[in-house]
Here is the input.
Amino acid sequence: MKILVTGGLGFIGSHTVVELQNEGFEVIIIDDCSNSSEDVLDGITTITGQTPLYEKIDLKEKDKVEDFFKRHQDVQGVIHFAASKAVGESVEEPLLYYENNIGTLVYILKELAQKNKASFIFSSSCTVYGQADEMPITENAPVKVAESPYGNTKQMGEEIIADTCKVTPSLNAIALRYFNPMGAHPSIEIGELPTGVPQNLVPFITQTGMGMRAELSVFGDDYPTLDGTAVRDYIYVVDLAKAHVIALKRLLESKNDDNYEVFNVGTGTGSSVLEVIQSFEKVSGEKLNYKIVARRAGDITSAYADTTKANTVLGWKSEYNLDQAMKSAWEWEQKIRK
Ligand code: UD1
Here is the structure.
Protein backbone atom coordinates (compact mmCIF):
# COMPACT_ATOMS: atom_id res chain seq x y z
CA MET A 1 0.00 0.00 0.00
CA LYS A 2 1.52 3.30 -1.09
CA ILE A 3 1.60 6.19 1.36
CA LEU A 4 2.73 9.71 0.55
CA VAL A 5 4.69 11.45 3.31
CA THR A 6 5.14 15.15 2.63
CA GLY A 7 8.07 16.62 4.52
CA GLY A 8 9.33 13.06 4.93
CA LEU A 9 12.97 14.17 5.19
CA GLY A 10 12.22 16.36 8.21
CA PHE A 11 12.51 15.53 11.90
CA ILE A 12 9.15 13.90 12.62
CA GLY A 13 8.60 12.94 8.98
CA SER A 14 11.75 10.84 8.69
CA HIS A 15 11.00 8.93 11.90
CA THR A 16 7.48 8.26 10.61
CA VAL A 17 8.81 6.98 7.27
CA VAL A 18 10.88 4.42 9.22
CA GLU A 19 7.85 3.24 11.21
CA LEU A 20 5.73 3.01 8.06
CA GLN A 21 8.37 0.92 6.31
CA ASN A 22 8.69 -1.29 9.41
CA GLU A 23 4.95 -1.94 9.10
CA GLY A 24 5.26 -2.94 5.44
CA PHE A 25 3.98 0.23 3.76
CA GLU A 26 5.53 1.47 0.53
CA VAL A 27 6.51 5.07 1.17
CA ILE A 28 6.91 7.93 -1.26
CA ILE A 29 8.36 11.13 0.13
CA ILE A 30 7.83 14.63 -1.18
CA ASP A 31 10.18 17.22 0.27
CA ASP A 32 11.55 20.51 -1.06
CA CYS A 33 14.63 20.30 1.22
CA SER A 34 13.99 23.88 2.37
CA ASN A 35 14.64 22.75 5.95
CA SER A 36 15.97 19.23 5.47
CA SER A 37 18.60 17.26 3.59
CA GLU A 38 18.56 14.39 1.10
CA ASP A 39 21.22 12.70 3.28
CA VAL A 40 18.35 11.69 5.55
CA LEU A 41 17.46 9.07 2.91
CA ASP A 42 20.71 7.26 3.75
CA GLY A 43 19.82 7.17 7.45
CA ILE A 44 16.37 5.77 6.69
CA THR A 45 17.86 3.16 4.35
CA THR A 46 20.43 2.06 6.94
CA ILE A 47 17.69 1.54 9.53
CA THR A 48 15.08 -0.24 7.42
CA GLY A 49 17.10 -1.71 4.56
CA GLN A 50 14.76 0.03 2.11
CA THR A 51 15.15 3.33 0.31
CA PRO A 52 11.82 5.13 0.13
CA LEU A 53 10.75 6.67 -3.17
CA TYR A 54 11.45 10.37 -3.14
CA GLU A 55 10.54 13.36 -5.30
CA LYS A 56 11.85 16.85 -4.73
CA ILE A 57 8.72 18.95 -5.19
CA ASP A 58 7.73 22.34 -3.86
CA LEU A 59 4.07 21.82 -2.88
CA LYS A 60 3.36 25.51 -3.53
CA GLU A 61 3.55 24.64 -7.23
CA LYS A 62 -0.01 23.53 -7.80
CA ASP A 63 0.57 22.02 -11.23
CA LYS A 64 3.35 19.86 -9.79
CA VAL A 65 1.01 18.59 -7.07
CA GLU A 66 -1.65 17.75 -9.69
CA ASP A 67 0.94 16.04 -11.84
CA PHE A 68 2.22 14.02 -8.87
CA PHE A 69 -1.22 12.64 -8.04
CA LYS A 70 -1.85 11.85 -11.72
CA ARG A 71 1.35 9.82 -11.83
CA HIS A 72 0.72 8.11 -8.48
CA GLN A 73 -2.96 7.19 -8.52
CA ASP A 74 -2.20 4.27 -6.19
CA VAL A 75 -1.44 6.59 -3.24
CA GLN A 76 -4.01 5.59 -0.62
CA GLY A 77 -2.95 7.71 2.28
CA VAL A 78 -1.12 10.96 2.92
CA ILE A 79 0.71 12.02 6.05
CA HIS A 80 1.25 15.74 5.67
CA PHE A 81 4.23 17.13 7.59
CA ALA A 82 5.51 19.65 5.06
CA ALA A 83 5.15 23.08 6.67
CA SER A 84 7.15 25.97 8.03
CA LYS A 85 7.42 25.91 11.81
CA ALA A 86 9.41 28.85 13.16
CA VAL A 87 7.10 30.91 15.33
CA GLY A 88 9.21 34.09 15.25
CA GLU A 89 9.69 33.97 11.48
CA SER A 90 5.93 33.55 11.04
CA VAL A 91 5.36 36.85 12.84
CA GLU A 92 7.85 38.58 10.50
CA GLU A 93 6.58 36.91 7.32
CA PRO A 94 2.94 35.91 7.77
CA LEU A 95 2.19 35.52 4.07
CA LEU A 96 5.05 33.08 3.67
CA TYR A 97 3.44 30.95 6.39
CA TYR A 98 -0.08 31.19 5.00
CA GLU A 99 1.17 30.25 1.55
CA ASN A 100 3.44 27.42 2.74
CA ASN A 101 1.15 25.91 5.32
CA ILE A 102 -2.34 26.68 4.03
CA GLY A 103 -1.89 26.88 0.25
CA THR A 104 -0.16 23.50 0.08
CA LEU A 105 -2.75 21.87 2.35
CA VAL A 106 -5.56 23.03 0.06
CA TYR A 107 -3.83 21.66 -3.05
CA ILE A 108 -3.38 18.25 -1.47
CA LEU A 109 -6.94 18.09 -0.12
CA LYS A 110 -8.27 19.02 -3.58
CA GLU A 111 -6.52 15.97 -5.01
CA LEU A 112 -7.66 13.65 -2.22
CA ALA A 113 -11.26 14.84 -2.44
CA GLN A 114 -11.41 13.43 -5.98
CA LYS A 115 -10.51 9.92 -4.89
CA ASN A 116 -12.99 7.14 -4.10
CA LYS A 117 -11.37 6.75 -0.68
CA ALA A 118 -8.53 8.68 0.86
CA SER A 119 -6.88 8.81 4.28
CA PHE A 120 -5.17 11.94 5.54
CA ILE A 121 -3.11 12.59 8.67
CA PHE A 122 -2.38 16.21 9.59
CA SER A 123 0.43 17.56 11.78
CA SER A 124 -1.31 19.79 14.24
CA SER A 125 0.01 21.16 17.50
CA CYS A 126 -0.90 21.71 21.13
CA THR A 127 -0.33 25.35 20.24
CA VAL A 128 -4.04 25.42 19.23
CA TYR A 129 -4.97 25.34 22.94
CA GLY A 130 -2.87 28.40 23.83
CA GLN A 131 -2.75 28.60 27.64
CA ALA A 132 -5.46 26.10 28.47
CA ASP A 133 -7.51 26.75 31.59
CA GLU A 134 -7.18 23.20 32.90
CA MET A 135 -4.35 20.68 33.02
CA PRO A 136 -4.00 18.08 31.65
CA ILE A 137 -5.44 19.30 28.34
CA THR A 138 -8.17 17.20 26.74
CA GLU A 139 -9.17 17.42 23.09
CA ASN A 140 -12.34 19.20 24.23
CA ALA A 141 -10.41 22.18 25.61
CA PRO A 142 -11.34 25.27 23.63
CA VAL A 143 -9.10 26.40 20.78
CA LYS A 144 -7.74 29.83 21.75
CA VAL A 145 -6.91 32.81 19.57
CA ALA A 146 -3.53 32.00 17.99
CA GLU A 147 -0.43 33.79 19.28
CA SER A 148 1.31 33.73 15.90
CA PRO A 149 0.64 33.18 12.20
CA TYR A 150 2.33 29.78 12.61
CA GLY A 151 -0.17 28.80 15.31
CA ASN A 152 -2.96 30.20 13.20
CA THR A 153 -1.98 27.98 10.27
CA LYS A 154 -2.44 24.93 12.52
CA GLN A 155 -5.89 26.12 13.67
CA MET A 156 -6.95 27.07 10.15
CA GLY A 157 -5.54 23.83 8.81
CA GLU A 158 -7.75 21.85 11.19
CA GLU A 159 -10.80 23.90 10.20
CA ILE A 160 -10.10 23.49 6.48
CA ILE A 161 -9.85 19.72 6.91
CA ALA A 162 -12.99 19.55 9.07
CA ASP A 163 -14.99 21.62 6.54
CA THR A 164 -13.75 19.47 3.65
CA CYS A 165 -14.53 16.20 5.45
CA LYS A 166 -18.07 17.41 6.16
CA VAL A 167 -18.89 17.49 2.45
CA THR A 168 -16.55 14.69 1.34
CA PRO A 169 -17.54 11.33 2.85
CA SER A 170 -14.79 9.57 0.88
CA LEU A 171 -12.16 11.60 2.74
CA ASN A 172 -11.14 10.44 6.21
CA ALA A 173 -8.78 12.57 8.26
CA ILE A 174 -7.11 12.68 11.64
CA ALA A 175 -5.37 15.72 13.09
CA LEU A 176 -2.68 14.85 15.63
CA ARG A 177 -1.99 17.61 18.12
CA TYR A 178 1.64 17.13 19.07
CA PHE A 179 3.02 18.34 22.34
CA ASN A 180 6.83 18.89 22.36
CA PRO A 181 8.66 16.35 20.17
CA MET A 182 12.27 15.48 21.05
CA GLY A 183 14.93 12.80 20.69
CA ALA A 184 16.39 10.68 17.91
CA HIS A 185 15.96 7.18 16.53
CA PRO A 186 17.62 4.56 18.82
CA SER A 187 19.93 3.62 15.93
CA ILE A 188 21.17 7.25 15.96
CA GLU A 189 20.92 7.22 12.16
CA ILE A 190 18.29 10.00 12.05
CA GLY A 191 17.41 12.83 14.43
CA GLU A 192 16.70 16.53 14.66
CA LEU A 193 18.73 18.85 12.39
CA PRO A 194 17.86 22.43 13.30
CA THR A 195 19.20 25.09 10.98
CA GLY A 196 20.95 28.02 12.64
CA VAL A 197 20.43 28.75 16.31
CA PRO A 198 17.83 26.31 17.69
CA GLN A 199 14.64 27.92 18.96
CA ASN A 200 13.51 24.77 20.76
CA LEU A 201 14.76 23.81 24.19
CA VAL A 202 16.18 20.32 23.68
CA PRO A 203 18.46 20.98 20.67
CA PHE A 204 19.64 24.16 22.38
CA ILE A 205 20.55 22.13 25.46
CA THR A 206 22.41 19.42 23.53
CA GLN A 207 24.31 22.01 21.45
CA THR A 208 25.26 23.82 24.66
CA GLY A 209 26.41 20.48 26.08
CA MET A 210 28.67 20.09 23.03
CA GLY A 211 30.13 23.56 23.55
CA MET A 212 28.57 24.98 20.38
CA ARG A 213 26.60 27.48 22.47
CA ALA A 214 28.11 29.23 25.49
CA GLU A 215 25.03 28.89 27.66
CA LEU A 216 21.32 28.22 27.65
CA SER A 217 18.98 31.07 28.53
CA VAL A 218 16.12 29.80 30.68
CA PHE A 219 13.19 31.99 29.74
CA GLY A 220 11.63 32.97 33.05
CA ASP A 221 11.65 31.50 36.56
CA ASP A 222 8.63 33.40 37.85
CA TYR A 223 5.90 31.23 36.37
CA PRO A 224 3.32 29.82 38.78
CA THR A 225 4.82 26.31 38.56
CA LEU A 226 6.64 24.07 41.04
CA ASP A 227 10.09 25.59 40.38
CA GLY A 228 9.02 28.75 38.53
CA THR A 229 10.03 27.59 35.05
CA ALA A 230 7.55 26.78 32.31
CA VAL A 231 6.13 23.28 31.96
CA ARG A 232 5.74 21.25 28.75
CA ASP A 233 5.01 17.67 27.73
CA TYR A 234 8.08 16.27 25.95
CA ILE A 235 7.16 13.40 23.65
CA TYR A 236 9.74 11.01 22.18
CA VAL A 237 9.83 11.36 18.41
CA VAL A 238 9.64 7.60 17.75
CA ASP A 239 6.56 7.32 19.98
CA LEU A 240 5.08 10.24 18.04
CA ALA A 241 5.98 8.59 14.72
CA LYS A 242 4.20 5.40 15.82
CA ALA A 243 1.07 7.41 16.60
CA HIS A 244 0.95 8.42 12.92
CA VAL A 245 1.09 4.82 11.73
CA ILE A 246 -1.64 3.76 14.17
CA ALA A 247 -3.81 6.72 13.11
CA LEU A 248 -3.29 5.93 9.44
CA LYS A 249 -4.22 2.26 9.95
CA ARG A 250 -7.35 3.36 11.81
CA LEU A 251 -8.46 5.19 8.67
CA LEU A 252 -7.31 2.59 6.15
CA GLU A 253 -9.16 -0.12 8.09
CA SER A 254 -12.25 2.14 8.45
CA LYS A 255 -12.14 1.90 12.24
CA ASN A 256 -12.69 5.63 12.73
CA ASP A 257 -15.86 6.85 14.46
CA ASP A 258 -16.09 10.00 12.38
CA ASN A 259 -14.44 11.05 9.11
CA TYR A 260 -12.60 13.82 10.95
CA GLU A 261 -11.03 13.11 14.33
CA VAL A 262 -8.52 14.86 16.59
CA PHE A 263 -6.09 13.31 19.07
CA ASN A 264 -3.54 14.71 21.50
CA VAL A 265 -0.12 13.10 21.23
CA GLY A 266 1.89 13.59 24.41
CA THR A 267 3.10 11.63 27.41
CA GLY A 268 0.66 13.12 29.89
CA THR A 269 3.57 14.23 32.08
CA GLY A 270 4.61 17.85 32.41
CA SER A 271 8.30 18.73 32.88
CA SER A 272 9.70 22.13 33.77
CA VAL A 273 12.66 23.68 31.97
CA LEU A 274 14.83 22.99 35.03
CA GLU A 275 13.69 19.35 35.06
CA VAL A 276 14.68 19.04 31.41
CA ILE A 277 18.11 20.47 32.25
CA GLN A 278 18.43 18.00 35.14
CA SER A 279 17.53 15.16 32.80
CA PHE A 280 20.27 16.27 30.42
CA GLU A 281 22.83 16.45 33.23
CA LYS A 282 21.82 13.02 34.46
CA VAL A 283 22.04 11.18 31.15
CA SER A 284 25.12 13.02 29.84
CA GLY A 285 27.10 13.31 33.06
CA GLU A 286 27.87 16.91 31.96
CA LYS A 287 27.10 20.10 33.83
CA LEU A 288 25.03 22.48 31.68
CA ASN A 289 25.81 26.20 31.58
CA TYR A 290 22.61 28.14 31.94
CA LYS A 291 21.29 31.41 33.25
CA ILE A 292 17.81 32.62 34.06
CA VAL A 293 16.62 35.44 31.82
CA ALA A 294 13.28 37.18 31.22
CA ARG A 295 10.27 35.29 29.90
CA ARG A 296 10.09 34.81 26.11
CA ALA A 297 7.24 36.74 24.52
CA GLY A 298 4.29 34.55 23.62
CA ASP A 299 5.30 31.64 25.89
CA ILE A 300 2.66 29.99 28.03
CA THR A 301 3.05 28.73 31.60
CA SER A 302 2.10 25.13 31.23
CA ALA A 303 0.90 22.60 28.66
CA TYR A 304 0.65 18.84 29.06
CA ALA A 305 -1.69 16.36 27.50
CA ASP A 306 -4.57 14.32 28.73
CA THR A 307 -3.79 11.21 26.69
CA THR A 308 -6.94 9.25 27.57
CA LYS A 309 -8.45 9.57 24.10
CA ALA A 310 -5.21 8.56 22.33
CA ASN A 311 -4.74 5.65 24.76
CA THR A 312 -8.27 4.27 24.62
CA VAL A 313 -9.72 5.26 21.24
CA LEU A 314 -6.57 5.27 19.11
CA GLY A 315 -4.87 2.52 21.10
CA TRP A 316 -1.56 4.36 21.30
CA LYS A 317 0.60 5.09 24.33
CA SER A 318 4.02 6.71 24.68
CA GLU A 319 6.79 4.36 25.80
CA TYR A 320 9.87 6.50 26.40
CA ASN A 321 10.20 8.84 29.36
CA LEU A 322 12.10 12.13 29.39
CA ASP A 323 15.45 10.58 30.37
CA GLN A 324 15.28 7.92 27.67
CA ALA A 325 14.34 10.49 25.03
CA MET A 326 17.08 12.85 26.27
CA LYS A 327 19.68 10.09 26.07
CA SER A 328 18.87 9.58 22.38
CA ALA A 329 18.98 13.35 21.73
CA TRP A 330 22.41 13.55 23.37
CA GLU A 331 23.81 10.54 21.49
CA TRP A 332 22.56 12.05 18.23
CA GLU A 333 24.11 15.44 18.98
CA GLN A 334 27.47 13.80 19.74
CA LYS A 335 27.31 11.77 16.53
CA ILE A 336 26.51 14.65 14.19
CA ARG A 337 29.20 16.92 15.70
CA LYS A 338 31.92 14.30 15.11
C1 UD1 B 1 7.35 25.83 20.37
C2 UD1 B 1 6.44 26.74 19.64
C3 UD1 B 1 5.18 25.98 19.32
C4 UD1 B 1 5.50 24.77 18.50
C5 UD1 B 1 6.50 23.91 19.25
C6 UD1 B 1 6.94 22.79 18.36
C7 UD1 B 1 7.02 28.97 20.46
C8 UD1 B 1 6.56 30.14 21.25
N1 UD1 B 1 6.19 27.93 20.42
O1 UD1 B 1 6.72 25.45 21.58
O2 UD1 B 1 4.28 26.81 18.62
O3 UD1 B 1 4.34 24.03 18.25
O4 UD1 B 1 7.63 24.70 19.60
O5 UD1 B 1 8.05 22.15 18.84
O6 UD1 B 1 8.09 28.97 19.90
N2 UD1 B 1 13.06 27.51 26.51
C9 UD1 B 1 14.09 28.10 27.22
N3 UD1 B 1 15.23 28.43 26.56
C10 UD1 B 1 15.41 28.20 25.23
C11 UD1 B 1 14.36 27.57 24.50
C12 UD1 B 1 13.20 27.26 25.17
O7 UD1 B 1 13.96 28.34 28.42
O8 UD1 B 1 16.47 28.54 24.70
C13 UD1 B 1 11.84 27.16 27.20
C14 UD1 B 1 10.60 27.83 26.64
O9 UD1 B 1 10.40 29.06 27.28
C15 UD1 B 1 9.51 26.80 26.94
C16 UD1 B 1 10.25 25.45 26.86
O10 UD1 B 1 11.63 25.77 27.01
O11 UD1 B 1 9.05 26.96 28.24
C17 UD1 B 1 10.04 24.74 25.55
O12 UD1 B 1 10.33 25.65 24.50
P1 UD1 B 1 10.30 25.22 22.97
O13 UD1 B 1 11.13 24.00 22.76
O14 UD1 B 1 10.63 26.41 22.16
O15 UD1 B 1 8.80 24.76 22.71
P2 UD1 B 1 7.44 25.58 22.96
O16 UD1 B 1 7.69 26.98 23.24
O17 UD1 B 1 6.63 24.81 23.93
About this structure: Residues 87, 125, 127, 150-151, 180, 199-201, 204, 216-219, 230, 232, 273, 296, 298-299 surround uridine-diphosphate-N-acetylglucosamine (CB under 6 Å). Residues 206 and 330 are 6 Å apart (CA to CA).
